Amino acid sequence: MRSNQNNNEPINDQTSDKDLIQFVSNGREAALNELMARYKHKLFAFILKYVQDEDVAYDILQETFIRVYTKANSYKSQFSLSTWIHQIAVNLCRDWGRKQRIRHFVSLDSYVTPGSTQSLADIIEDPNANVENQASDRMQIELLDKEIQKLPHKLKSALILFTVEGYSQEECAEILQVTPKTVEMRVYRARKILLQNLPDIF
Length: 202
Fold this sequence. Notes:
Layout: H1 4-7, H2 17-25, H3 29-51, H4 54-70, H5 81-106, H6 120-124, H7 131-150, H8 153-164, H9 169-176, H10 180-197
Helix pairs in contact: 2-3, 3-4, 3-5, 4-5, 5-9, 8-10, 9-10
């Protein structure tokens, strides 16, 4: 624990992650707010791609930072803080997926995941493409999104982190707490499944 004098140090965008998490463990909400400003956008993008529902993604994002606040003392410095926070989000997404499967089995109605307001089509859409091509591209992306949602958690999380969020194999390995080779194999297996299920797209 830091001394009270150090705990009164000003917090801004120049404060290191290491200092911020220490301040959070000392109960300084300003430090948590700074961490949220740094990581919430990338975290939200990952969570939204995983759950495909903005409201659910926002809830999981909030819960992620609640866990950061309540578990700050358990942070181990052998991981970067970004990695640790993403591990929390990945675990919460996995827990959400388990709950959805349970609800599906106990419900008379099949569970349908609402589509997000932003898909990969919104990101890669060519403004110069004609309307027919845009519609075709969007339909293919929607099919791809649906197939991604069907992947097992281990494959889906690796695929999204690596191909959508742009993390390196090493960064994905830290977040998922596996080896880079395991990340490579999970992404390969995920792509193979998508290729088999969507041959016309690939």
